[in-house]
Amino acid sequence: MTFLEYAPAPESKAILKLKPEYGLFIDGKFISGHGKPFQTISPSTEDPIATISCANEQDVDVAVSAARRSYEHIWSRLNGAVRGKYLFRIARLIQERSRELAVAESWDNGKPIKESRDVDIPLVAAWFFYYAGWADKLDYAGLGADPQPFGVAAQVIPWNFPLLMLAWKIAPALAAGNTVVLKPAETTPLTALLFAEILEQADMPPGVVNIITGAGETGRLLVNHPDVNKVAFTGSTAVGREIARAVSGTHKKLTLELGGKGANIVFEDAPIDQAVEGIVNGIFFNQGHVCCAGSRLIVQESIHDDLIERLKSRLSTLRLGDPLDKNTDIGAINSPAQLERIKALSSAGEVEGATRWSADCVMPAKGFWFPPTIFTNVSTSHSVARDEIFGPVLSVLTFRTPAEAIAKANNTPYGLSAGIWTDKGSRILAVADELRAGVVWANTFNRFDPSSPFGGYKESGYGREGGRHGLLAYLKSGAPATFKRSEKQVPTSASPVKAIRRSRMTKRVV
Amino acid sequence: MSHMMIPKTYKLYINGTFVRSESGRSYQVFDKNHVFVANVAMASRKDARDAVVAARSAFSSWSGASAYNRGQVLYRIAEILEGRREQFIAEILQAEGGGRANAALQVNETIDTWVWYAGWADKYAQVAGNTNPVTGPYFNLSVTEPTGVVSVIAPKRPSLLGFASAVAPVLVSGNTVVVIASQPHPLPALSLSEVLATSDIPKGAVNILSGNPAEISPWLASHADINAIYLIGAGDLNWADLQASAAETLKRVVPPEADNDIASRSLERILAFTEIKTVWHTKSLS
Hints:
The complex is a heterodimer. Chain A is α/β, with parallel strands linked by helices. Chain A folds into two domains: 19-39 and 48-143 and 152-257, Aldehyde Dehydrogenase, Chain A, domain 1 (3-Layer(aba) Sandwich), CATH 3.40.605.10; 263-449, Aldehyde Dehydrogenase, Chain A, domain 2. Helix content of chain A is 39%, strand content 15%. Chain A is built from 16 helices and 20 strands. Chain A has a seven-stranded mixed beta sheet with strand order 14-15-16-13-12-17-18, sandwiched between helices. In chain A, strands 9-8-7-10-11-19 form a six-stranded mixed beta sheet, with helices on both faces. Chain A has a three-stranded mixed beta sheet with strand order 1-5-4, with no helix packed on it. In chain A, helix 2 packs antiparallel against helix 4 (113-134). Chain A is globular. By secondary structure, chain B is α/β, with parallel strands linked by helices. Chain B has a single domain (12-282), classed as Aldehyde Dehydrogenase, Chain A, domain 1. Chain B has ten helices and twelve strands. Chain B has helices at 45-64, 67-83, 85-96, 100-120, 124-128, 159-171, 187-197, 213-222, 239-246, 267-271, and strands at residues 12-14, 17-19, 26-30, 36-41, 130-131, 138-146, 149-153, 176-180, 206-209, 228-230, 252-254, 274-282. In chain B, strands 9-8-7-10-11 form a five-stranded parallel beta sheet, sandwiched between helices. In chain B, helix 1 (45-64) packs across helix 8, helix 4 runs parallel beside helix 6 and helix 8 (213-222) runs parallel beside helix 9 (239-246). Classes of the chains: A alpha/beta, B alpha/beta. At the A-B interface, helix 8, strand 18, strand 19, helix 15 and helix 16 of A face helix 4, strand 6, helix 9, strand 11 and helix 10 of B. Strand 18 (439-442) of chain A pairs parallel with strand 12 of chain B.
């Protein structure tokens, strides 16, 4: 045993009380779906965890009807303070069951338990706690008095942060007064179904939150359902495009949180040890299955060699393996399909001429694994510098001047995240101004907070999640129009003068 | 001795210059009594693409101008309009009819619209942005920024006020625009380009196309270098197809407004064409 080896320290699965089968959670009850059931498996062992129902068209319709009923008759009629109290209850129940949720998440998703335990689940609780407080304060959200919910929200979430993405979607939707039909990803449905049990424990009125499971087809049926008023999606840019096309002409309110190819810019005066930790966190956190990952390292030429040496040395200490082991740094790739994609893009990187280096990890015999990998000698035209890999693969580019760093960082159709590492405060502010990205981390990376808006520029999507701005994705102005009338002005009718006079008179009378 | 009138040649306004359509096409514009007024340039796909190139080049200078400066430039548009009000009243009257008082009122409201938005230039960011009380040693700030290049389909009527009500809120935050003017009544908007040309707004920040929106707008909706499309005047076009086409590049799309209150002034119109950027800064004594 070298000093790097640790005795196994697995978190026990005994805390879980899973059912062998899970139905769809519709109108406050678990019911069987009419689609073909599927299994959710552990990506680290390939062992089956549970059998999951699949919602077909009929089930989606039942779920949307339940959400509509509960919107009309229950949720939109409750006052904000009561809605808030339900959300506070949920936040507390999540805290109480946090270890169980963390174990379920790591088992089903493959992410290290230290991440699900210390990052995902605490943020889930914080997200509900934050938005709970908004529910009776919507007049202060920035849309004027008495803003209104949209109605029924269709929400489709990805597999990389299953329960956290659920919280990002459900907490603001409910606080604003919408009801929800949510579809978790087909490879990671488990914690959403445990969340349904939490809704039961919270005595949530039936139909306010409905959880339907299935693959892409179920999601397609949900977002295309004519009785849905709001669509929120987090996932790939390709699917985001498809959804944007599908809702066009419908007046459904749409928010999209899509892919990224985040630039992590390191200047020569950066605090180098912190930068190394930040780069590692930026791209190897959650196996790189992070839409805002810092997947492009853009480093000043003068420190390139030194930084790469330090990175390789640091990566060689990362422990890859059992996600439930408390010492694990790198868990399993979520699915065989994702592993294939990572392998294909990495091979393309080599073929195109970039230099590949992978940490020397022992891969477990079963499950889906990919070692932390760095590409150097990357040019801006290489596919590893352009395509989102969504895996533990870092592409390294260099720059000489700040202007070149900014140009390279912005040279992407994406615009989700970026990082800046330098000791010079004025440079941080100037570079942050120039980056076309929705979230910029200065001397840190991959920080999240329920009060902080998150979302992209350009093809990384639109709308924000988190903070006051995240609430606005689920609210419309109280005035009947899309845009409220700020002052009385010329109407567009044939006789504006008369109309103006009328409106002035009305004003005087009032 | 009577003066023989010299009719004006109405051209497109692209990259700060007045140009005929590269296609050589024009179309006839008639007054309210269906009497011929002018042959107006009929913009082509190529003209639209040239306008996008101009708008993209102007983005850094216009969005990079100080908020105070952008406010002054928008205010200057109002000043110059004020000096030329008689010309615009005559053009509106000729195109839309409805009496002199209404035309004058439309010019007044247009001037006031530019002034109203001018005043927002250095304020909207304060109203729409905020600090965020995150957990941990970070200073966290959310600020608004312009979305980029925005394509606008201006309303048919009111020809001048509709144009200003659609363009001013997009422009104020630093976006640059490519506008398709009212097809039946393009002359007030094309004359406004003369105002813009002397207003100190950077060349290319506003580009005005006259022509058939049904022909040009699909090229703009699918153009990869446009970030958002404002369909305020597209109510009678097949705007669902435009929105679907815009989805290919994930443009922000603001559909035609339900109540058709084209001339309303609102902060939300400004914010519809902005992005929220959130910056996390570490805090440390060492």
